[in-house]
């Protein structure tokens, strides 16, 4: 059986990469490639919609697809926990949406390690760097990391983040300061800094080339077909060998 795919954002860098991967995978056929001037109706009739567009238009694409009974894979950044919660209230019960803030295996492992460490350190901050043309900040990966770390500290208390009223202290997400750099020559980099009594821990992940996303994209394309409800994060596609609450 062939899965018919509508690819929204097909002309972007990530869209072109996914298009190439789909052409190489058995059992998939791209039946629609949507750009800025495309109508949402162009995705009708597909079995799967892959959304790698812009935060401003991603919501309407996902809602249209899911309400028509189409499975959705979201690779667009900017899906915070609040936005995901709002989406959940608009979708039919049988909808299947898989949201992947970052397709890199190293990135999801870095976020997982940071989440584990968050319970043991009182001081936490994130610095993330991306290409100059990235539209949103903080990045979806940094937001996801902060939210997971804050959730891991439930019952422990908030992190120590002094003077966050000052703009130079970054943007707080779930009580954790995030500092966003946008510069030429960078694909993606995230550093999570944790500090405690007499010691510090840094967890760093560098994306050196977009090929880092390929394995995660392939795994997500296979996994999304059986998703029910809203599932967030590549860690829910992988077998990390650790228990998760």
UniProtKB/TrEMBL annotation:
Record keyword Nucleotidyltransferase present: no
Keyword Lyase annotated: no
InterPro entries (UniProt xref): DapB_C, DapB_N, DapB_N_CS, DHDPR_bac, NAD(P)-bd_dom_sf
Reactions it catalyzes: (S)-2,3,4,5-tetrahydrodipicolinate + NADP(+) + H2O = (2S,4S)-4-hydroxy-2,3,4,5-tetrahydrodipicolinate + NADPH + H(+); (S)-2,3,4,5-tetrahydrodipicolinate + NAD(+) + H2O = (2S,4S)-4-hydroxy-2,3,4,5-tetrahydrodipicolinate + NADH + H(+)
Domain Dihydrodipicolinate reductase C-terminal: 109-238
Keywords: Amino-acid biosynthesis, Cytoplasm, Diaminopimelate biosynthesis, Lysine biosynthesis, NAD, NADP, Oxidoreductase
EC number per UniProt: 1.17.1.8
CDD domains (alphabetical): DHDPR_N
GO molecular function: 4-hydroxy-tetrahydrodipicolinate reductase
One Pfam family from the record: DapB_N
Pathway: Amino-acid biosynthesis; L-lysine biosynthesis via DAP pathway; (S)-tetrahydrodipicolinate from L-aspartate: step 4/4
All copies of domain Dihydrodipicolinate reductase N-terminal, residue ranges: 4-103
Family to which the UniProt record says this protein belongs: Belongs to the DapB family.
NCBIfam families in UniProt: dapB
UniProt name for this protein: 4-hydroxy-tetrahydrodipicolinate reductase
